[in-house]
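Q: Focus on the shape:
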Amino acid sequence: MIWFKSYTLSDLKGLRDTGMGTHIGFDFTKIGENFLEGTLPVDERTRQPFGILHGGASCVLSETLGSVAAWMTIDPDKYRAVGIEINANHIRAVTQGTVTGHASPIHVGRRTQVWQTDITEDVTGKRVCLSRLTIAIIEQGTLSAQKD
């Protein structure tokens, strides 16, 4: 197991119930020994004007899963995990239902991590998007509001 401690889905509820996740219907669904899964509905909150899953919604799913998974590997009293780069290949259009993201590590280092999220359509199991997220691991207190 790669996690800093033994986490449960209940432990992640507070992370799910804040910010963007509450607006788009995101939910954590499974924690494995080295992966994290979550779902996203394909509905009026997550579709783009042409009726298909918005690419940004797929990125939100990937960033949420990858960032939280990275956070789960570190001591949260000492460090933070913050996304610094994301890419996404949108492979198949989805118009309704639910998609599931499966985030797994490519690299888990002391200062950087790379997580890949495979997003699939729940009905067919076909891949919708493949995304990669790079995370910086920073010490608590290093992140502050910047003044321009």
Summary: The radius of gyration is 15 Å. The chain is about 20% helix and 40% strand. The mean pLDDT is 93.
